Amino acid sequence: QVQFVESGGGLVQPGGSLRLACAASGATFSHYPFGWFRQPPGKERELVARIHLGILTTDYADSVKGRFTIARDNGKNIGYLQMNALKPEDTAVYYCHTIDYSSGTPGFESWGQGTQVTVAS
After folding, report:
1. Distance CA 106, CA 112 (A)
2. Label partner for 56 (CA 20 to 30 A): which of 50, 82, 102, 118?
3. Cβ neighbours of residue 32 under 8 Å, at least 6 residues apart?
4. What pLDDT band is residue 6 in, cutting at 50, 70 and 90?
């Protein structure tokens, strides 16, 4: 079973950038597609980016397409989310998780604590 530790969040001004990291342990990370989810205050958690086993197969929610880039380093068991041109509506707690790539459904592992991203001037 994979465990996740997210990091890299913080307070950033609109238009700024952040790079989130997801350290995975407990299983071979490279065996799983994974995704980045976010949960804005008072809202449901949503999938914003996903990457398959091969690093070239990715997909993004329309709200982040062209601004966010998901990546993975299977050798280091780390996933990344590069976030550029951030907007106030990107404010949320961000989580990584293994997923079923086709459906975007998260796996059965527990969620990590997430990392808070706040976009404000």
Report:
1. 12
2. 118
3. 2, 53, 98, 99, 107
4. very high
Here the tokens at position 52 are 């398959």
* Count of beta carbons in the 10 Å neighbourhood of residue 96: 30
In order of 7, 92, 105, the CA distances from 13 in angstroms are 18, 14, 31
CA distance 97 to 113: 11
Closest CA to 11 of 96, 88, 72, 110: 88
How distant is the alpha carbon of residue 78 from its chain centre? 11
**DSSP 3-state assignment of 118?**
strand
Per the structure block, which two tokens stand in for 38? Answer: 């976010």
Rg (CA), the chain: 13
Record the tokens describing residue 81, joined without a space.
Answer: 């989310």
75-90 pLDDT tens trace: 898 999 999 999 999 9
